[in-house]
Amino acid sequence: MVDAAHPAPLQAPLRDAAPPVVKTAFSWAWLGVTPFFLFALLFLILPTLYLVVGAFMDTEGNFTLDNIVNLFQPTILRAYWISIQISAASAILGALFGFFIAFAVTIGGLPPWIRSTVMTFSGVASNFAGIPLAFAFLATLGRTGLVTALLIYLFDFNIYGSGFNLLSFWGLTLTYLYFQIPLMVLILAPALDGLKKEWREASEILGASSWQYWRYVALPVLWPAICGTTLLLFANAFGAVATAYALTGSSLNIVTILLFAQIRGDVLHDQHLGYALALGMILITGITNGTYIWLRARSERWLR
Amino acid sequence: MKRSTVGPWIAFGLGALYFLIPLIATFEFSLRMRRGTYSFDAYAVVFADPRFQASFSYSVLLALITIVLGVMLVVPTAYFIRLRLPKLAPLVEFITLLPLVIPAIVIVFGYLRLYNSSSWLPFTSNARATDLLLAFGYVTLALPYMYRAVDTGMRAIDVRTLTEAAESLGASWATILFRVIFPNVKVAILSGAFITFAVVMGEFTFASLLDRPAFGPYLQLIGANRAYEPAALAIIAFLVTWACMGLLQLVLAGARVARQR
């Protein structure tokens, strides 16, 4: 079984690099990394490939594009579209607010203890997602939540009377920001640290205003990092299931909830359409992450 | 020239409001169970619930298994890649990033199709095997964090010199790996372990779709049926996450102090 599943690309570099190193040490090294590749193949690559291949097959196993074509029906398109909107809104807002907070704690001149507190808290909050996060926002902005009640008590203002609903587009976006902003802070703070003091001094000596410094020096340098991280946040929100599921049940038709229902009970009445649904998600997160990695490589050129 | 810090203070203040209010509100909500007065009744109910105890300890055990499996998988790989097979480093790094690219729900969907009870590797045919599949799934989810932590740890020590020194003293590769390399990347392993623990404790999608009695599905169940217990559980979950990150900071700070000596 080991031989059959052994990934083919592994053997090619072996021949190239064999001569300079002692042969026995080499085989030990290959043996040492074999479990990793075997694991990745079994629990990451093959399961994904199975769905990707299944998306292009009909129930008899023949090649077909019908599943892909069937994705373009109103229910499914709407699910993708709402997912994309929520992910984009929470990514862009998260990046914006995250940038200001990261700026404040790194080069904003706040006391050092604030920086370490914010960074630790960001580590916690970026991992505080899923179902408990949904509970927290229900207790805050739900119909009987503290903030909802306080607003009625203090200002006689009922946010639910004015059309707000936690179980909606903006409610979910606001909730997602709780892990999106900290993630932005965590990734962007080191980039802001990379801005060299000399750049600012040089631009000031040349008579640049603060605005000109940011517009023509700092932002162009930071831009790939900011855009890249925004894409990462997008993918992060796009794949999220638990928060939305616990918050809205199945009332908000986003694509992860649809896929969840499909896996549970074949709501689309077509197994292979489910594979196509998964393929669409992989494509979207794959493209955004690929662009992120490319942009990060670009930003590292300047921020060493 | 000293720049004004008004803007940064406003950014920090607004951030603090956004992040603290939900925590305060959740805590307040969790105390409301007894009518007319604040009490810890919701917590008492949660802790007395046998399903809470069962699912919490199930997830703790699963997290520990995940950490052990993850360490056994990642440390030798990172070591051999760094020492002998640097050409493969980009490939391995790419693979370890994939769990961030492929949504968890897609991965578990693949498991359910590939390892169903009539397949060549029927992981989902009985409960124990499914537990194992869930642990492997969590190792996959934790791979990006674990690999990065351990690889960073390896970069900080001189793997090559340590290996050559041990080899010249006649150590076998197993001795090198377990008695030289492991102790030297202990801090990195621990930091990866704490993040893994936090990830596993809160995970919902894998456990729910593989139908295992973990903490995440229990939370969902309570959330759908109770009023005050969910808030108490959210506070407990937040404290667990906070404890993991706090211990992580402590370990890293301890290592920094030790290195300075």
CATH architecture of the largest domain in chain A: Orthogonal Bundle
Largest interface: A-B, 86 and 87 residues
Q: What's the overall geometry of chain A?
A: globular
- According to DSSP, the number of beta strands of chain B is 0
Helix content of chain B: over 70%
The profile of the biggest β sheet of chain B is: none
Distance between the termini of chain B: 38 Å
What number of domains of chain A? 2
Write the element-wise H/E pattern of chain A from the N-terminal end onward.
HHHHHHHHHHHHHH
Describe the structure.
The complex is a heterodimer of chains A (304) and B (261). Chain A has 304 residues and is mainly alpha-helical. Chain A has 2 domains: 2-55, no CATH class; 72-302, MetI-like (MetI-like fold), CATH 1.10.3720.10. In chain A, 77% of the residues lie in helices and 0% in strands. Chain A has helices spanning 2-5, 11-17, 23-55, 66-70, 74-106, 112-127, 130-141, 146-155, 169-193, 197-205, 210-238, 242-248, 255-265, 271-302. In chain A, helix 9 crosses helix 11. Chain A starts with a helix and ends with a helix. Chain B is mainly α and 261 residues long. Chain B has one domain (49-260): MetI-like fold (Orthogonal Bundle), CATH 1.10.3720. Chain B has 12 helices and no strands. Chain B has helices spanning 6-30, 41-48, 50-83, 89-101, 104-114, 127-156, 159-168, 173-184, 186-202, 205-209, 215-225, 229-260. Chain B is globular. Chain B starts with 5 loop residues before the first helix and ends with a helix. The model of chain B has no long low-confidence stretch (mean pLDDT 90). Classes of the chains: A mainly alpha (304), B mainly alpha (261). Chains A and B meet through helix 2, helix 3, helix 5, helix 6 and helix 7 of A and helix 1, helix 3, helix 4, helix 5 and helix 6 of B.
